[in-house]
Each structure stands twice: as structure tokens, then as C-alpha cells.
Amino acid sequence: MNPVYTQLGTTIFEAMSARARASGAINLGQGFPDGRGPEDVLAEAARALIEESNQYPPMLGTALLRQAVVGHYRAHQGLDLALEEVIVTSGATEALACAIFALVSPGDEVVMFQPLYDAYLPLVERAGGVAKLVRLEPPHWRITADALAAVASDRTRLVILNSPLNPAGTLVNAAERALLADFCVAHDAIAICDEVWEHVMFDGAQHRSLIAEPGMRERTVKIGSAGKIFSLTGWKVGWMCAAPQIAEVLAKAHQFMTFTTAPNLQAGAAYGLGKDRRYFEEMRAGYQRSRDRLTAGLVGLGYAVLPCAATYFVNIDLTASGVEMGDVAFAEWLIAEAGVATIPVSAFYAEAPVTNVVRLCFAKQDATLDAALARMERRP
């Protein structure tokens, strides 16, 4: 069997969620909302299921959804994409897999930033790539020129960037985008930009993609997710956008991965992407209110909470909170003794982990957050 997979354990997200289901713990670990999502988007997907074709849609995705992606990014991010530059995938993780398998050859070096989404490393290794890991640290989690220089070589071929960054809840700033663009151009590297959180940003922030930086239009794969945009994580509808010479190769990987995606879900996603700005503003405002509710509750219990500019997550700094436990031990104590599931942030590191930060999901109803806070009145 392939050692990349035989040596892997169950993801921390599934492990903690399984324990929450078995024990009745409140699950603030895995990042999914506990609401239904927008009713009109659900209704459009349901209508398409009954009234339209349920046979194979085009491998690249329906023209309706691909055009919706083009129009959405033009309206919201000022990007000028063409239809042939958009490929629909069965979720953003499939898009990541396709991009990595299409662009990485054995021995290629791939720059990634820790904390990192847990799918990145095994996918790169399965493609024969060599991981070059940049360690980011709280509270600011910033990328520096020195850190990039330390991992660069003449075999640097790819950079994988997640911004907004899960689990840190940070955004790559203008200086970091310029730094990364210069790095990619200097090393003739392609950037895979995992931008699934591009709409879940707070305090008036606006998403800026690396693809818009000078020199990056022809060397960037931009990945998005309907599941994150519409709070429908189970739909697994995503897409990847890239210049034609890259998109052509991405499509060849995709055709032998999932080939296509449920047509009614594509119809629902296309409808949603065309919604007016008010939906996106209200969605962000709702999550910001939940962020503030959970943060205020945690601070009231004596926990030090790190800044959160985006995503569904806030982080507790255990050291600053006076908790003399590592993140794994604290997460184990909290689910066993208080009945609240969280995620230790060390799980997002492949080496030299940060061990004093725990992640909590605030994409929940007020009653769920309040019940979790009541249980967390117990402290180790």
C-alpha cells in the first residue's frame, strides 16, 4: 500500500467530531455552521433537481456556473476572467488535488505555510513533491522575506497560499502579497491560492487575491468554494480559475478525479453567486456578530483570545490565559470534563508545532455558543 496514506491517521476534525457525537459534547471543533443556509439557494438547487437534467453535466462544469464565477469575481474583486479559465470541481479539496497533481512532478519543491490545511502535505507527497515548510507564529502569523529565502532553491516550483488563513483567522496583507508575487516571479513558480474564505471577512476588510498582483495573472490558480460562501459545507461545490495554458492541464487532472459535479448543486451555486451585495454583507455581519459573542464570552471567562479577521474560527492563547497545559491536553480535558469539542492548532503543523493555541468555531447559533460558554466556566 502507498506509504503516504498508510501512515496517516484519521483527521483531527473527524476524530473530535466523532467524539462529540458519541459523548454529546458541543462541537466547536469542525468548521461547519449549524444553520440551514440561504433558503433561496436551497430552493434553486431543489428546483433544478426535479426540473432539469440529472445526467452527466460537462466535465468543465455547467456553462451557467462557470459564467456565474466569472461575473461574480468581476463584480466583487475586479478580476477579468474568461469562461475557459474556470473549472468546476467537487469541492475545493478536489480542486487542490487536481492542481497539485497537475503541476507537481517528482522532486519539485513546494512552499507551504504552517499552520496548514491538513490535505496539502499528503497531496504534495503523493505527487512526488518535496515540502518546504514556512512556520508562522501567533499572534500575527506573518510571512517574511527571510522565511521565504530560507526555503527557496532552484527546485522551487510551487507555492500554496491559504488566505484568509485557517486556523489563524488572518489575511495576507499588501506587503506580503507583493513579497509572494516577487518570490514566485523570481523562481518561475506557480501559486495555488486557496481562497475559500474570501467572503468570510470582517471589520470592513476586502479580499485581494494574489492573482491580481503584477506578474501573477499567468502563474496563479485561484480556488473558491460555494460551501464556504453559502454556509453549505456539505454541497462540496468548488472551482479553480487559471490562465488557459494552466487550466488546460488542470482539466486533465480533474477529468480522472471526479470528472464532474452534481448538476443541481451547480445550478444552486450559480444562482447564489448572482445574489446582490446585500446577501454577502449580511452574511459577514452575522458571522462577525457570532465572532464577537464568542470572543466576549471567552474573555469574560478569563481566556486570552487572539485577533480574528476572517474565517469561522477564534483562537485561545493558553499561555496568556494562564492555562498550564499544551493544546492537545487542553482539548482532551475540555471535551472529557466540560463537554466542548475544540481543535488543537498543533494539528495544523507537520513539524515544529505551535502548542499553546486552541481553535473554536463560532459559526453556530447563539444558543449553541452560549451553552458552550456555560460549560467552559469550568477551567483546568
How much of the sequence lies in strands comes to: 5-15%
User: For the largest beta sheet, what order do the strands appear in spatially?
Assistant: 2-8-7-6-5-3-4
* Cα-atom radius of gyration: 20 Å
Q: Main β-sheet, in a few words?
A: 7 strands, mixed
Average pLDDT for all residues:
96
**Shape call:** globular
Helix content range of the residues, please? 40-55%
Q: CATH superfamily assignment of the largest domain?
A: Type I PLP-dependent aspartate aminotransferase-like (Major domain)
- Given helix and strand content, the structural type is alpha/beta
CATH C-level category of the largest domain: Alpha Beta
Spans with pLDDT under 50 lasting ≥5 residues?
A: none
**Topology order in helix (H) and strand (E) letters:** HHEHHEHEHEHEHEEHEHHHEEHEEEH
End-to-end separation: 42 Å
Domains counted in the coordinates: how many?
A: 2
Output the number of helix runs. 14
